[in-house]
Amino acid sequence: MKYRGCQFVPETVSDIGELHLIKHIREIAGEPSAGVGIGDDAAVIDVGTETYLLATTDALADGVHFLTSQIPARSLGRKAIAVNLSDIAAMGGIPTSVLVSLALPASTPVEFVHELYRGMRHEADTHGATIVGGNITSTPGPIAITVTVLGSVSKSSLSLRTGAQIGDVLATTGTLGNAAAARLITERSRGWEERWGTFVSASQVPTPRLKAASALATVGIPHAMLDISDGLASEVRRIGEASGVGALLHSDSLPISEEVQQVSEELNLDPLDLALYGGEDYELLVALSRGSLHEAEALLAEEPLHVVGEVVPREVGFTLETDGKSTPLAAEGWTHF
Predict the structure, then answer these.
(1) Does the chain have fewer CB atoms within 10 Å around its N or its C terminus?
(2) What domain count does the chain have?
């Protein structure tokens, strides 16, 4: 980083950070002529019919998003598809087609690729999508997997990040902090396989909440919705900034599993930190009116919603309430730089 006068001038992506880099890219790319471009969970393309085309892409790199020594290739394949399906879910959509691009060192075992694709095929089939193509290239390392998923959503069901309203409740599906707890227990605890193997295996492959999201979006319940990929605190801030509002979270309302509590105790961590900042949960975060909460809960009887907070005026900011005390919510979460 250089100085210009008394100001820092960013030179690298690490200097500027992931979110500011995306803002710069969006300015350079410009806005699409029809639809929604950079800034939501998926791009929205108006193809002139009653439905929008959805497109999303995610890259997973060995050493950043996974370690080949700690996740089976089949599970890795499932995860690579699932994280993209989760983006389609956040828009209220249905996935249709999948493209896969692999960057592989020459020493990669063929069976690894076979197992990877078996996992990808399984996850795509489970959710009604088809792998239709892709690309393979060589690399000196590490392995990188880039998946693009196409989907569709009716124009009346499209859910964005921009519609949260003051007075809305904020609710999530599932439990939070599992992926972070699983990652940390494999890194810091010897002999974790015997005690935590089942929990780690389950946490390595997220469940894209396609049915839940579609059920809510079809009847127009979400005012705003996204998936929790970078941690609840980060995603709450994204909805707030996109909608021009603030948010208050209640720490005692966050859905934290018993396993996350136990891992946190073993590693001397605060389970609240894992739920707020850990990332890779891929649950839904929904802003909806209090009046529609009962209907939403009835629709998702098998995947219950957990009310974790409410939308407040922008000037209030982003806060966390613990034992009746409100403190600023740290602007933290998973970030690449």
Answers:
(1) N
(2) 3
